[in-house]
Task: structure prediction
Amino acid sequence: MAAAQVPTYAHAIPSLSETIPTLPALGDLDINRAIAANAPIDRANLTNAKVVAKAMKATFESAVNPGVTEEMVETAELRLRAVEGAHTAAKYSPPGLMTGIAAILQRLDQIDQRLDTIDGRLDGIDQHLDGIDNRLHTVEDDVKLTKAITLNHRIIARNEESQPVCQPLYKTVEGSGHDRARELTSRADRRALNAPAVPPAIGTLPPNFENNITAYTTKDISQIISFYNQDFGITVDDSEPTRRTKLIKFLTRF
Result:
């Protein structure tokens, strides 16, 4: 005949001090009594929970209350109900029920741990995919740059024959040259220089490009500097004709 199973607590019940870290000192009242999961049912735990709940309520209603709040009293009473419920379930549930519940809870904990592991692996996969995306973007940028340089060689060859009427080159330097253009532009003309919301991409052409470079003003050239993020050798003291000449050299020489 199989030995009778000792009734146990299906789950842990923390002490009142663990549940309420801000609980004030209450003399000799045992507020540190915790109950471990699967520990044998002990009547002393139930007695302690009753004494603590009753003392908490009395202290709250006392004129010399050291800081016990109504919420603390409710927590002590809820803990008492939890202990009572554990004792009731252990003693009056069908044989094996509490063991089964404990096994289910343990199984759920194991599932949670496995899910955490899966989440960690998925995070690792996401990071790996991000790395692949970054490498693909780098390859794509390299392809765009190579294509732009190749096309520019052809355009420069044609511009040498047609200058000062020139076709625009494709952008090959990353980023915006807005700050560079401002440094080379007079204070009056800086007002017309608006920073782009998004820097122009490599392999693109400047918008509204005027092919006849002799028509360009200092302000126009500053816009071109901002787009290409190149100064074409222009200095702040250069005159407008000199700036046009240097822009033509940029468009017609390798």
User: Anything to note?
Assistant: The chain has a mean pLDDT of 86. The chain is about 55% helix and 0% strand.
